[in-house]
């Protein structure tokens, strides 16, 4: 599931080979809400299964000890009742992912990154999306083999995951924001595919055809029921659809995620034990969390605490960015907007309108 920053055609980035300027506060909020909805569906589905299935489902969940990996050099927690969760959408080709989507990319990247802030009342949430082509200062990090990755300025944000893993992404976000991350959740390719297959496919309706998109996907105008493999190609399609830009791909992602949630509701999957188990099995396989969330009970408790959060109370913001003056194919954090945004998040306050403006998109 890929997060894309729409960039004018005269400023093409590595992630967007063209496209038209767009207003980030409408589409940005929609795609952010969809990502969080899917996460909540996975967690709530897992929480609803019978406890006799606990051992198997609990064993599906991978976890990372973020606290051990980061040590004590971290921001202080300003508001103890609020929670800040870093959500990553990974395009890893490791394991079961290697056979998906032509598996021709080595390593993995955090194609979608959102810091979700949930106030103490758990009745609303704010999600800050970090564009993957943002140039940032990467802090010194420990790699999985114990080697030290030195600090470096002006690196692509989405390269950090592939070089040093999720703990380094958390450390980078903490240092650039001053916000302490409480939890980490990662969703991968194979889990997405299995979730769609567990539903028996998801129907989508196209107003125009897809002509040889990502992975060679070809679909005529009209309604199609996509299986997991087709769905993965669908949400990653850019070429062969519309103007071939990432803007079109974002639209397809939004359409598919909403269709999937509609299908879950239509099937009344949460009251069907057999279907519920399949969804829970697929959903938990797709997750890697921090160790504090690394069990079915912890996920269930977390989901229960967030039941007051829905689309109407979800506010999604793109981190304000400007085009880099040295390399117009990249963006950099825009100031003072970004500092104002992070300060509001850190102190559990409303985000001011000024902090929502992103020069790169004219917002």
Could you characterize the architecture of this molecule?
- With 363 residues, the protein is of the alpha/beta class.
- Helices cover 35% and strands 19% of the residues.
- The protein is built from eleven helices and 15 strands.
- The strands form four sheets. The chain has a seven-stranded mixed sheet.
- Strand 6 and strand 7 form a beta hairpin.
- Mean pLDDT is 76; it is low at 1-32 and 93-107.
Task: Please provide a brief summary of the model.
With 363 residues, the chain is an alpha/beta fold.
The H/E string reads HHEHEEEEEEEHHEHEEHHHEHEEEH
Give the beta-strand count.
15
Roughly what percent helix?
25-40%
* Count of alpha and pi helical runs: 11
In percent, how much strand structure appears in the residues? 15-25%
- Overall average residue pLDDT: 76
Q: Can you summarize the main beta sheet?
A: 7 strands, mixed
Which descriptors apply to this entry?
seven-stranded mixed sheet; 15 strands; disordered N terminus; four-stranded mixed sheet; alpha/beta; single chain
